[in-house]
Design goal:
Elements: H1 9-19, E1 38-46, H2 48-64, E2 68-76, H3 80-89, E3 96-98, H4 101-109, H5 117-120, H6 134-139, E4 141-142, E5 145-146, E6 149-150, E7 157-161, H7 162-167, H8 173-178, H9 184-196, E8 200-204, H10 208-215, H11 235-249, E9 253-255, H12 265-270, E10 274-279, E11 294-297, E12 310-311, E13 316-319, H13 326-336, H14 339-345, H15 360-364, H16 372-377, E14 381-382, H17 386-389, H18 394-406, H19 412-427
Parallel strand pairs: 1-2, 1-3, 8-9, 8-10, 12-14
Antiparallel strand pairs: 3-13, 4-5, 6-13, 7-10, 7-11
Helix pairs in contact: 1-2, 2-14, 18-19
């Protein structure tokens, strides 16, 4: 789900040859290296640049561990989730791996993941319960079993072209935020001012993060605790969807799905055409050499500051329940997701926000000026709903109905009716 640009295909292919090592071994087979260390196989997908950063943490672990040797299996391209699911079903899965939103719920329902609760409670563990943000810990808990820990997180904020706002004499999102007036009305106002200056105001991407940020607020959970009811038919959801629809129609907002071939939200922003984006910290590394100054501000609240919310994608690292040596695997996982591993992976400015204490400087060093907004956003973040993780395909059905609205195939009322029915049908399964 994290929208990060891939490097050149040649680099990806070259790195693939270097990283995809060791072939497939039987899930749960206990191996030893030539020097007697316990062998752990770790799989992750990503761009060539991301895989290179992940491998640095693996190399650092291998250098300091006396008992465990990790084999890194990097999967460049878009078929990572398919590869993981195929290997699990054929009993050739790695000992630990990144679990994507699309499959995490299914893996839990199928009882394929190890309960790591006892490790998080151990006094000498490199990673404890208190090191994991509460919202994520709850999201990674299924039937009282904790089955994942975050590798990092990516609370989303508004990126804006500060020079463009200054040039057009438009009050910036951060100025509104400082005044306590950064709400939906203000976002619409500055978007209209940018539109009237022949610029793209705000670029809307139609996936769960942006959509739920517009439809819901912090004062009401999307799903009930027992995951039998949802708020898609609420007045708040209706207001948010109406707001999106009207701003797309007025061209104050631009729907990313309507962009022409070769265009994307980040290319519009980099070229100076778009004034605002909504994204996590994954763009920071890409925006180091812009021809203009940019900054970030919180996502606006609906009407009152107490309603403030933002989306926060976060990927869990999980352990295969059939691994033969869970202690050895946890030694690596706790390093990789703990302070040392996150610091190594975010060397420089990084592309995410640490989930452990003591690493704030990674986020605050360099640009943008108001990077503190990334850190503050963690406390108000909306994470991927567990109810949707447990019902594969439901999220796509919801966003699919909204896309029909945004391209003019149906109105707000029909969209709400269809979403409510879709969610109700899924929750009853």
């Amino acid at each position: 789900m994290l929208r990060r640009k891939m490097l050149a295909a040649a680099l990806a292919v070259g790195l693939a040859g270097a990283l995809v090592l060791g072939g497939c071994q039987s899930s749960g087979s206990k191996g030893k290296t030539a020097d007697g260390k316990d062998s752990v196989r770790f799989m992750v997908g990503g761009s060539a640049a991301e895989l290179e950063q992940y491998k640095k943490a693996v190399d650092a672990f291998n250098e300091q561990s006396e008992d465990v040797e990790v084999t890194f299996v990097g999967v460049p391209g878009d078929n990572y989730n398919e590869k993981i699911m195929t290997q699990l079903k054929s009993k050739e899965a790695p000992d630990c791996f990144y679990s994507e939103e699309a499959s995490y719920g299914e893996l839990n329902k199928s009882d394929m993941l190890l309960d790591i609760s006892k490790y998080l409670d151990e006094e000498d563990s490199n990673l404890k319960r208190g090191d994991v943000p509460e919202s994520l810990l709850e999201n990674y808990t299924f039937q009282d079993k904790v089955t994942g820990v975050p590798v990092d997180c990516n609370p989303m904020v508004i990126y804006y072209n500060a020079d463009l706002f200054k040039e057009l004499n438009i009050k910036t999102p951060q100025e509104y935020a400082d005044e306590g007036k950064w709400n939906f009305e203000a976002l619409q106002q500055v978007s209209e001012q940018l539109r009237d200056a022949s610029k793209v105001g705000f670029v809307y991407e139609n996936w769960w993060g942006p959509l739920y940020s517009f439809l819901f607020s912090a004062d009401k959970p999307i799903y009930s605790d027992d995951m039998t009811k949802a708020e898609f038919g609420s007045e708040r959801a209706r207001a948010g969807l109406t707001y999106l629809d009207s701003n797309i129609k007025s061209k104050a907002f631009t729907f990313a799905g309507s962009l022409t071939s070769g265009e994307s939200p980040d290319t519009l922003f980099v070229s100076g055409q778009a004034g605002m984006l909504y994204a996590g910290r994954w763009y920071v590394a890409d925006f180091t050499d812009l021809s203009f100054e940019y900054d970030v501000a919180p996502f606006p609240y609906y009407e009152e500051p107490s309603q403030a919310v933002c989306a926060m994608p976060a990927t869990p690292l999980v352990i295969n329940k059939k691994t033969s040596d869970p202690d050895a695997v946890w030694e690596f996982v706790s390093f990789y997701c703990g302070e040392q591993g996150q610091k190594i992976r975010m060397e420089g400015q990084g592309n995410a926000v640490p989930t452990v204490d003591g690493l704030d400087e990674i986020v605050l060093t360099g640009t943008p000026e108001h990077a503190q907004n990334f850190l503050d956003a963690v406390d108000i973040a909306l994470v991927y709903p567990k109810a949707e993780a447990l019902h594969p395909g439901m999220t796509d059905s919801i966003t699919g109905e909204v896309e029909k609205l945004l391209v003019g195939e149906q109105d707000v009322e029909q969209t709400l009716t269809n979403m409510v029915q879709t969610v109700s049908d899924e929750l009853q399964k």
